[in-house]
Amino acid sequence: MRIPPNLQLRDPDFFHTPFDAWRELFRRSDDRQLIATAVAQANWVWSCVAQHRPIAVAQLSEEEVRRALDPDERSSVAPVRRALLDFAEQLTLAPNELSQENVRAAVAAGASVEQLRAVVEIAAQANVINRVLAARA
Amino acid sequence: MNGTGSQFDVIIIGGGPAGSILGSLLAQRGRSCLVLERDIHPRDHVGESLTPSTNPIFKQIGFLEKIEAAGFVHKPGACWTAPRAPAGKFVAIRLGDFPPPDATQQYTYNVERDVFDAMLIRHAHELGARVIQGAGAQQVLFERDRAVGVRARLADGAHHDFYGRFVIDASGRRCVLANQLGFKHKDPEFDQVAMYSWFKGVAPNPPGYEGFLFLHFLGLERAWAWQIPLRDGVCSIGVVTHRSDFKRAEQSPDEFFASLVDRSVSFAHVMQGAERIRPWWLEGDYSYRIDRLAGDGWLIVGDALRFIDPIFSTGVDVAAYSAQFAFEALEEALSGGDEAPAWATYERRVSDGVDVWYQFTSLFYKLQNLFTLFAVRERYREQVVRILQGNPYMPESLERAREMISLMQESYGTVMRQPGSLLRPGALNGTGHLSATVAVDALVASVLGPGGATDPAWREAAYQRGRAFARGASEAEARTIGRLPAPVAQLVFDLARTPHGITDEGFEALYAAGYSAESLLEITFAAAVGTGVERRTLGMEAIEAWEATTGNREATAR
């Protein structure tokens, strides 16, 4: 038994204000749901994957999402998307090893600084929510 | 000039709710009283939403049955919406969730004030109060510093002096007596204006929330909108905003209103098909305080004693309870008791309660988000509901309200010391730079706010260790940060490093060791937030380092 799911957070209004901010981030680009899915997948928090993946599929396609999230097939994904996903996963799995080299590689692949900043915001927040939900699984 | 000798026990200036309730109470007791009402009812008035606290007083004067029979809309509670929350998303407070001991029913009413006030003054008349409408009080008459009567201008234009043993000012925001004596002062903190009207075609409340008052926050400091469902598909819609915002906009009322509607997704949604069916009503003279509420031969009741803001639907609550307390003080004096102590008791009871309303309103405006968080949290919900039920005048409710105010003030201080907190006023206004730090701050505040289940030092340690782990600290290094009991430290480590690695067994051991689920949730949150905050820092640092190296501008513009 982990933290009982009915403990406060169960109330959908409980997260209301902070989630407003998060939702706002997601409104601005199709790939953001995909990135949140990739972060949740890297953290193995399947409840969060289940939340974000269907939206990413609706925004892109099942085929595109499958290829983006499968390490064996990611090389076939468009370079910019691949760079953003790699950046998010790096920030999730080994944040202390992230350096300007990762930024240089992503920019070289065509990502903009603005996109990378958005990835940082999303990955950071997804890492928080993933952990909370993991504790309540 | 005509005069009428000292034939009334009490003369009441004003036939709104305060004057009519007091007139009813006195008439029920067989006292002779005169109610002088400037207007001729029915007349328009703002303030259509009542609080359940008024039910017992209406019952006492035999008016509750008439309200029910009139078919006014039942109001079971109130809802809030955030400016950018999607339509259909709201926080609801159901007033009947925690019924007070003297509750007669689990709802109150939304009333068309023209009809309601007319019914109430007629009720006072039927109970035996003498009522003269179209009689505008010009001044209170004094003899040797004691109030002895009222000079009024009657509907035919003639002036007439009425005399009585006591004079009660229930003149509402005209504040006849306070203006005459120089006791009225503009409130230094509030400078609000309100504009409102009636609309048809406003989207109905969601199923299950029929009759609920909706408050829409507009993402502006000190601004909000009300949506009060009335009978026959009519809705009272009003906006309250800072006077300077209204002036600065230099727009017509329609344009200004439309600009405010657009600030809230929910408000805009419900107003999509709405059509205004009455002229705009603008309320400017809005917030004031009065130096004294009682003097030799006189008392002040209702809006005439203080008015702040209608956010908590307090208008009729203050009217009803000040009338009730004035009645008790008058009975004491009319029965031969000493006026001074009776007046002092009246002034204290009313001031204490109204001060609570004032402080709540003030806190609410300082930090709307914080108030909402208190409202949705289980442990404070009852207190918030009880406050919204009205009647903060009784000792136990006064004590409860003060305790809540103290908690909120403490939280307010905490939030304002955090520059990045999402709970700060205006934090949600921008769209481009909502940061993880800001959002997770709010998450922390929403769970780890006042009265947390764990030692604050533990939460801080969990948060800092979460950050350290994200920076790559070893378990041994993290142990030097703050102090945590070993099993809790293990939870923080597991959570920060590998969220999928935390197990049921680990939690069961913690429960068995006596840790509560709530305290573990707080620890979990603190650690999780630490990992997020540090990741964001590391990510942004990497970007900035690259920008510094490359001179970056071309990449940003790409």
List keywords for this structure.
heterodimer, A: 137 residues, mainly alpha, 7 helices, B: 558 residues, alpha+beta, eight-stranded mixed β-sheet, 20 helices, disordered C terminus
Overview in brief:
The complex is a heterodimer of chains A (137) and B (558). Chain A is mostly helical.
Category from helices, strands and their pairing of chain B: alpha+beta
Classify the beta-strand content of chain A into a percent band: under 5%
Radius of gyration of chain A: 15 Å
Structural class of chain A: mainly alpha
Biggest beta sheet attributes of chain A: none
- Total of helices of chain A: 7
Described by its quaternary structure, the protein is: heterodimer
Give the rounded overall mean pLDDT of chain B: 85
In this structure, how is the largest beta sheet of chain B organized?
8 strands, mixed
Count of alpha/pi helices of chain B: 20
Number of strands of chain A: 0
Backbone CA Rg of chain B = 28 Å
Instruction: Please indicate the percent range of residues of chain B in DSSP E strands (runs of 2 or more).
Output: 15-25%
The tally of strands of chain B reads 21
Low-pLDDT regions of chain B: 428-441, 447-451, 553-558
Share of helix of chain B, binned: 40-55%
Low-confidence stretches of chain A: 8-18
Average pLDDT of chain A, rounded to a whole number, is: 81
Largest interface: A-B, 56 and 68 residues
What topology does this entry show?
The complex is a heterodimer of chains A (137) and B (558).
Chain A (H helix, E strand, L loop, with lengths): L15 H11 L4 H13 L2 H14 L2 H8 L9 H15 L6 H9 L4 H23 L2
Helix pairs in contact in A: 2-3, 2-5, 2-7, 3-4, 5-6, 5-7
Chain B lengths: L1 E12 L3 H12 L4 E5 L17 H6 L3 H7 L2 E3 L1 E5 L9 E4 L13 E3 L2 H15 L2 E4 L2 E8 L2 E8 L5 E11 L6 H6 L2 E3 L5 E9 L12 E5 L6 E6 L4 E9 H7 L3 H9 L3 H7 L3 E2 L4 E3 L4 E3 L3 E2 L2 E3 L5 E2 L7 H20 L4 H28 L1 H9 L1 H11 L6 H22 L19 H13 L7 H15 L4 H5 L6 H12 L6 H9 L4 H34 L2 H5 L1
Parallel strand pairs in B: 1-2, 1-10, 2-7, 4-13, 10-20
Antiparallel strand pairs in B: 3-6, 4-5, 8-9, 9-10, 11-18, 12-15, 12-16, 12-17, 13-14, 14-15, 18-21, 19-20
Helix pairs in contact in B: 1-4, 1-9, 9-10, 10-11, 10-13, 12-13, 14-19, 15-17, 15-19, 17-19
